Amino acid sequence: MKVSLTTKIGLTIVGIVAFVLLLVTFLNYFKFQKTLAGLLDSRVRVVSLDLKSTVEGGLNLGLALRNIETLQPILDHAREINPLIATIQVYDESGNRLFSSPQSDVPVVPAEWMTALDSAETDTWSLAGETEFVVGVPLVDNLDKYVGGLSVTYSRSYSDAKVDAMLRELGEAALLALAIFGTLAFLAVFLLLRDVSAAYRRMQTAMTLAASGGVDPPDGGSRTEIETHMLMVRDYAAGAKQDIDRATAAIDEIGRKEGLPS
Amino acid sequence: MNPLRLVTGFAVFAMTLAAVLIPQDLSAQERRVIDNDGKPFRIYMVTWRGETDTDRGFADYFAERNISVELIRRDANRDSSKFPEFVSEINALKPDLVYTWGTGVSLAILGKEVEVDPEKHVTGIPAVFANVSQPIGSGLVTSARTSGRNITGSFFLVPEEAQLKAMAQYRPFNKLAVLYNRKESNSRLAVDALKDLSKRMAFEIMALAAPLDDQGEAIKESVSGMVEQAAAWKPDFIYIPPDSFMSRHRHHLSRAALQYGVPVFGAAEGSLDQEEDKPSHVLMGLISRYYNIGRLTGHQAERILVNRQRPEDIPIEYLSRFSLVLNMNVADALGLYPPMDILKIAEIAEPAEDAKQFVPVAGGS
Amino acid sequence: MSHPADRSAARSYSRRINIRLFALTLIILAGAAAFASWRALDAFERELVPEIEQKSVTVGQSVNDLIEKALAIGVPFQQMVGMEQFLSDAKAPHPEIRYLAVSSTEGGLLYKSVSSASAIPDEVADIARQVISGNHSKWVELKNYQNTALPITFEDRTIGVLHVGVDRAFVRQTISEILYDILVVLLISLLVTFEVLLIIVAISITTPIRLMDNVADRLREGDFSLAVLHRSNDEIGRFLEAFNATIRSINQSYDALLNKVRSLQQTIGNRVVSKDVEDILAGVQNRFRFFSSEGPRRQLRESSLINIRTPLFIFIFAEELSRPFFPIYVKELYAPIPGLTPEMVIGLPISVFMLMVAIATPFAGTWADRYGPRRVFMIGIVPAVIGFIGTGLALSLYDLLFWRCLCAFGYATIYIACQGYIADNTDSSNRAQGMAIFMGGVFAAGICGAAIGGILADRIGFRLTFFVSTALALLAAVLVVNLIDPQPPRTGAPKRKLRLGDFITVLGNARFLALLLLGAIPGKIILTGFLFYLAPLYLKLLGDNQSTIGRVLMAYGIVTILMTPVFAKLADRLGAHRWFVGLGTAISGLGLIGILYQQSTITVLGGVVMLGLGHAMSISPQLAMVPEICAREVAEIGQTTVLSVFRLIERMGSVVGPFIVAALIGAFGYSGAMAGTGILISSAGVLFLAVFLGFAASGPAKGSKS
pTM for the whole thing? Predict the structure, then answer.
């Protein structure tokens, strides 16, 4: 199979372009994921901190966490006006669920929440679970005693779907870019190497002609240095061949003189 | 697919194990009633003037925490002669803990730190004190870090600096008028502290003591005049220290202040009380609520009884958050509305009487 | 013997092709990346704008809750106090929100908080009126902002409007935040492009042209005994076939001639005739040389040095990926080791790696001699791959040390294998150039590795990045199998092994010792102690992410790769090697002291750049100085041996570097340790100058000019 120089180098450049596009897509994808997660997280955080101040206001009045009866409708309302939010839960320091919107029968919250709560360094913590994201805040009463926590969960599928769609879209854009710029690359390489290819093709023809004793094609004035150099070499080779041929002829001559059949 | 899964596998397993075991363990502990080897903890409570919110907060705390207690309640009913009788009863009953309410009761039962007498005071039984305005000033203890003996308790007054900061947050001020009764040690200590702070925080202070009658008691009729005198100085706030005389006459005092358009700040719950016959027109106060002090005392009792901590290892504490009480009715009458930051944390008092009627129409702004 | 003019013509011709291809690729790459980013921006805007709106609504609701509470307890809408502070606090955690403003029923602004360099657009008054009459929230896209307007209700009536303004540039900013990353990717891909294009152009254009040139030159001298061995199906390959065919046909003619001569000589024994025939034949043979049909046909084939550069590049790249985060990774696995401070324990894996490299290098050298570079490269890849996997999965500090030992062993082996390959395929005339190709690959890999490693670590985490290293190392192995021919074991005299006596001989030279202690070892200490160990930890402490750390470390490679040739030429021309070593060492430490004045990423970057500059000045002159100051020892045991001793002892600096810096951290904290290292190294440089200028003044030993 004939492979031209253009194909070879063109493919190399296309390979590199593909590599770069892959990396750029990768970077954009992760940036989108991070930005979206950040937006959702900070949105839920606003709700969580508002609820925290409501709950702590109740604690300030001396109410025990489990006795803040106004909390349930407040949680329900907060969930209602924020469709992103899946659940809002309030629990005591042992992880027993005290309030939940929507109401839940499970008596305790996941143990990871309690671990996250214990190791949280700031006033909020976040967890990324298999199916949901969780934002949590600790609840502190006016004895400076940590009395429990409040967690807001929101579904992972919402952001996952968006992120997946974005990946597809970025991928398509990358393929389009590859198609456009790959074609351009081929075109440019073709133009760039046209002279080289042509020169070598001419030299090839010239060499082949020389080997078969033909005549040079006319010089269109586009000869490169190397081509001139090669033609000189070719002519020299041709000269050498003539010399050998002449010697052969001389030998033949001697042979004939000696009466041998040639 | 993800090689990290392999690595974290163990950790996940361990966490799952924890998820299965720990909450049940904890919730079991939560449901269990905490007691003293099958018997309730016995707490001997001495109060001064009947049951207050402090006592209710104290009792509620145990209920909340599922701690079984037997409360032996004794009330002096404002009679200091009953104290020796209480001390001997305590020594006879040998309760697990003693609770004392107020400065007088605490000093009588527990003694000043420097003059504790095992004959006259309870020494062998751990004790917690509540509602002592000046635990250090009164000599009950000498250091907030530790009592150095078998007692602990709480500060129930809010530090003056915190109060001034709350006032400044409401409305930056340069002139502060303080009305007090020089017969009360709490008030004298507060005025001294405020004078100190006036240098550091750069504001002018005018301290007006109520005139005394022949018996050396403050004259209640003088209150309106004092307000007038203060108002003439054009202060930004009138400040009432934790002064029982001024608290008792809060209605007159605050009503007079309304007339001159001066906001009043109360440093103790007493000056903010809205009773039918004695409504208060104090604009705001930064206070430790009796109920919360009771819960804080309950928390200290829990540490002694349940966690077996020595009282001398438990410092004399403040509440970590004070209650900012706001009378919107007064704010409205004075046209002096609270900034949003204060609104965010304030508790809004229910006024017992409309304040607007006392503000002269011309002086409303 | 050749025709230099034609030769250089051929070379400049291929260089021209290289430059054009490189420029072309640069344009294409930038274009493609710009196109993809532009599309991404579009998609980001479409997807993120609704999310931002949702968030504005949530923040707005939170603000409205308190405003409505204030209204409910009797604060008049017109007389709310401290609104500016409140709105500004509500805005603070959300950088994209540029203003919060409250309009009254009439549309006038009552309260507002505006971020710097922002202004509330005039349209809000109109919007407010629409919201009040419509009694529902409204989202409008204005020229510079997305304005979300929420009604403020009091006693079931809308009495005002809250405006939440989000900068429309926010989405654009999120894209521009990764601009640095994309630029780094472009830079890296250009380096990669350079590597790949170099090899492709070398294989398919440059090398055949050079071979053809060689053959053509011999041809002109009448030597037809050579052909070009090059197989490819492109234009050049086909031309070369024709070219070879021409040579072949001449050889065939010659063969025919020989046959004729032979048969003639067999049939006639006539001496006179025979003499004539031989004269003719000799006439041909004198002028030309051919390959005889029986003998081996000599073909020219060049083992391209470029062939080894790509696998080496990829392997070093794999190793360097962990550069910006390795100490931070170690910190995560920290376990106490008795007798060592925590900082020393964190530095330990780097030291152990360097120690293992130092130990393994002599063995690797022996093997390279015995088995040839290709096999040694493959020997090295096995422990390296196992080491990378192990490092990525490490359970504790202890097994991590083991895995790093394997990596170090592989690293040393492969490094030596590549050096051996270059030694095998060059002679004294082009060895320096060969080594330059080799070092160029190593430096380029260092630059790319640090930068890409940082980006990867940020995105996929430390552990997975080691698996990327694993995959790359395997790729390097595949390339070696395909690009490098098995070579027979090196013939000739086996290399002289290092002996203890050599150390004694060389270390007896006080100036050699001074060069080691005041130039070479400080250079290594600052490299491993500061660049590999302290800088990543310190930058992390300053709050930088891994990408930034990678970019800072990358600066060292960029500066050295750019400046080393410049300084090396300058030092040679001025004959001032010792000045360059001394000043370079002093400069390399100087930048680190700046941290005392300002503790920031920029200062650390400054330190890294100065370090690069200092090393660019000092490293090559150090090597040049060795024969200068060890003339006697070189005469006695040979230059190679002296250099081996130098290298071996110098590596001890790499081993102790992290320890010294860790001890400084323990004593003075991070900033103090950085400045301390700088002061230490700079003093060594100054001392070096004092010692050597003192020698120059007192002794007759003058640096030989080369």
Answer: 0.68
